[in-house]
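Issue: copy button drops trailing tokens. Both records pasted manually instead:
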Amino acid sequence: MTTDSGEQRGRASPAARAVRDLDPACFAFVMATGIVSTGMSLLGPSWLSLALLAAACAGLAVLGAAFAARLVLFRANLAADLRAPDRAFGFFTITAALDVLGLRFALARHPLATAILAAPAALAWLLLTYGVPASLMLARTRDSVLADVDGSWLLWIVATESLSIAAATVVPVWPGQAGLLAPVAASLWCVGLVLYLMVATLILLRWFTIPVRPEAVGPSNWILMGATAITVLAGANLLGLTANLPVVRATSGFVSGFTFTLWAFGSWWIPLLVIIGLWHIRRHWPPTYELALWSIVFPLGMYGVATLTFGKAANLRFMAPLARFVFWVAVAAWVLVAVAFVRSATKPARAAKAAKANV
């Protein structure tokens, strides 16, 4: 039986192997491309924003189809990922990708698309936000998972805050539901805030108590900053709601102060993450494409969008030029990662062509 199964795996087509081995965090491409498109819609040029939006939508369609195929054909592999501490939190990119695209559509004045995307995003978040921690607590195979804690765990916070943004975004469109949507948005913002404090503490605890290997400080740790950035954006959206809502009156002071605190802390992370990243590259030279590189693009893009939005909401004028600078860094990072992806995807074909030429 085992031999036959192994032979079947060996005979699997490249497409089947790609679906079987699909990384749970694959939707990070949609997140990164969607937020860069959002920033371009705010700063221009609009044609580039639309091109990136098309790329993000295409990526969502392709990856969604691949994920559905994996769910049907390779449930055992998917279940194994849900039990793996270093991979399980990658599934939260599903929620975040849908909500980031929803934000972009809202800026294009298509709030119905935002609401449609938020519905499956909320369902996925609800299943994962209880299923993943429960799996790691009740079904783990060893005493501690602390050695597996990394930046990917913060995708839990990113997904939570993305739902807060989605809820706040549709409040002006459906004012009759503001009494429900505004408290949901504020509650999710608070939940994400507390989760960030917990998970960031676990990551620092790992760094300072367990010998740090180069792979432990990879690109996914940029989500330490990305999670603060999306929380800042969610806070700015809450501050933008009408002041006569009871939940806004009850939380505006706290949200405003803590949002600035998170913005400052996220800014503090950037130089440290650059230093850690340079150390990682030095140990992995020459650098090669990996999915986690999109985890650098997304935080940079989100930091730019969040800084610009919060600066306007809080009337902090110094944030606008900073946001523009960081956002163009995010655009450059997107281009570099996209080029690396294309080179990686076409490498087998180029190698085969070179081998044929040598013959």
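Record 2 (pasted manually too):
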Amino acid sequence: MIELVDVTQHYGVRPVLRHISVRIERGELVVIVGPNGMGKTTLLGVMGGALPPQHGYVTIDGRRRRQSVEDELAIRRQAVYLPDQAWLPSLRTGREFLLGVGQLYEIDMDRLMEHVDRLLDLFELTRQGEWAINSYSAGQKKKLGLASALITEAPVLLLDEPFSGGLDPSGLLALKRVLKRRVGEQRGTVVLTSPVPELVEEIADRVLVLRNGEVAAFDTLDGLRRLTGSRGSLADVLERLIFPETMRKLEDYFRELPP
């Protein structure tokens, strides 16, 4: 379980997050959505321990982030944070990297080697797994970063824009199915950000909508439909919640120009 209590984050004099208080239950897949610059990545970074909030705090399974070395180490064994552009050791092979991450998390070696093989096959990296990472394409690096989060077998995954970065259709399908199983059958917890609602609508248990650094809504898709009076897709719901000005601007744009 993840709980954020009155989390406020500033960059200089500009507030990015304002008094965020939410609770995410075990076995949930929560998607954070909102316009660019509204705090999605910052909020996930605070959850992941990469950023200390100016006010408030985050707890994961009852332990408070950044409170003590003991608590933080315990949290990091349970919760993996993957930024949008993860650092990768460019001169190592993909297989070496995944094995190293798994050993860091003390995965049994026989289990680890089999899991590495399965992940490389899943993301169509079996051949590339023996290559140095600096030879990978952007999409292949994205797949390897995702595989590095999955190889830990951590029960909590915090993923910043996992569906971006050049993932091909097979990678998108594989990731959706893996994450859905992670929360459904394995009772894990996944929190991710996405700028494209169509990619996450089918897998989200709840959607956290950010607007101007605040929680505009946090509910299931059906709950958001009731809130907005919309019967459409998540994109339609978000139009009413956070993009009403964009619709007005579109109407203005498509008006006939004066002769």
